[in-house]
Write a structure and sequence with these properties.
Shape: globular
Distance between the termini: 34 Å
Strand order of the largest sheet: 3-2-1-4-19-20-21
Number of helices: 10
Largest sheet: 7 strands, mixed
Radius of gyration: 20 Å
Strand content: 25-35%
Helix content: 25-40%
Number of strands: 21
């Protein structure tokens, strides 16, 4: 059955008034004279999300479906449930849960593309909000996790034991290797990025600027390596707490379509301020910021629709902001069938009102969410 949506269609290079016709895939884009201030965008893709609305990836299948539906209501039509550094048995349990959610898709939820393994293959000296259960990516651990078949992205500190051989294994298996939670200097990071490419992989960086050494005049660090390496992508948590808007502008200017937004959202996303937990640790949500008792940032309560609005507030056009949450992550993850509104692409569609608030969400041509509340004129 063909469905239709009319409004301002946000294409990769322009905004076109008209009508989108689709079933499971986009069948045609018809130019028109739509005057309604409704924007039609490609669905958002979140490659790094721990939880939301009280649920966490580490809690199992039902929690993964619950957090996925929560983020879908904020425009995310594809996501990668993300682990945290916990004892290895807990990580394996979570990966099996992601695999189960993939085998039995939620008909009223978004696409679950696979898992992002953020920890335990990270530096014990750059934990950020990760609990202290780091381990090396030894061959037996790699074999066990890869046999589950759901991991699509791995955050890895390139300076730890077995990192070089792990990079080879992951890259050859088509798993994205994302440098993060690392004490690596510029040369070590650059060498790892080149190694990923040499093995046929696609390099990335986990939450750029966060949990990695900063840029200094004589110590450029991994941030510089990621921004200047022409094949490397990088995530960013643009809630304006993790990254200053000026740093966002710098990274965006240098990386352009290699920069992508993620939420890094934890279970407290969508809930009121107050106490919560992350990886078994107590955290406090206050004023939209999540912190450990020691004051360190601990994930976020960000949603991708808010990240898009933040980008527009800080100077990006709607077309540019749309790329940060759709086409850029699609290219990084190798998802050629989504990320933009084009013929025969998956009909994953987000409808925004004049205030860029979510109005409707469509996943594979099915309307999965409608917001009946209207924004103020």
């Amino acid at each position: 059955m063909i469905q239709s949506l009319s409004g301002q269609i946000v294409l990769p290079d322009r905004i076109l008034p008209g009508t989108l016709h689709f079933d499971r895939h986009i069948q045609s884009i018809e130019p028109g004279t739509a005057c309604d201030q409704t924007y039609i965008l490609p669905g958002f893709i979140d490659g790094h999300v721990h939880g939301g609305d009280g649920a966490d990836t580490m809690d199992g299948v039902d929690a993964i479906r619950h957090l996925a539906r929560f983020h879908m209501r904020h425009g995310t039509t594809t996501l990668l449930p993300t682990t945290i550094t916990r004892p290895w048995s807990d990580v394996i349990f979570a990966l099996h849960a992601v695999a189960e959610a993939m085998r039995h898709p939620d008909p009223d939820g978004p696409h679950i593309h696979g898992a992002h393994l953020e920890g335990p293959f990270v530096s014990p000296h750059k934990l950020g909000a990760q609990p202290p259960f780091t381990i090396a990516p030894s061959p037996d651990k790699l074999a066990e996790m890869m046999a589950i078949g759901c991991v699509r992205v791995v955050t890895l500190a390139p300076e730890i034991e077995h990192a070089e051989s792990a990079i080879t294994s992951f890259a050859k298996a088509g798993i994205r290797v994302s440098l993060g939670h690392t004490t690596a200097d510029y040369d070590t990071a650059l060498s790892a990025l080149d190694k990923i490419c040499a093995c046929g992989g696609v390099p990335g960086g986990t939450h750029l600027f966060n949990a990695m050494l900063p840029i200094e005049g004589r110590k450029p660090g991994p941030v510089t390596a990621l921004m200047c390496h022409e094949a490397s992508y990088a995530e960013m948590i643009f809630d304006t707490h993790h990254v200053h808007p000026a740093s966002f502008k710098l990274a965006s200017k240098l990386m352009q379509n290699r920069l992508l937004f993620v939420t890094d959202a934890m279970r407290g996303a969508g809930q009121a301020d107050g106490p919560s937990t992350l990886g078994g640790q107590d955290v406090l949500i206050e004023g939209g910021v999540v912190r450990l008792p020691n004051g360190s940032l601990a994930g976020s309560v960000l949603t991708l629709d808010q990240a898009l609005r933040n980008a527009v507030t800080h100077g990006k056009s709607l077309i540019e902001a749309s790329r940060l949450v759709s086409s850029n992550p699609a290219k990084y993850l190798g998802l050629a069938d989504r990320g933009s509104l084009a013929l025969q692409k998956m009909a994953d569609v987000v409808v925004l009102d004049h205030a860029l608030q979510i109005r409707e969400v469509w996943v594979g041509g099915r309307k999965t969410f409608e917001n009946t509340q209207k924004s103020a004129p």
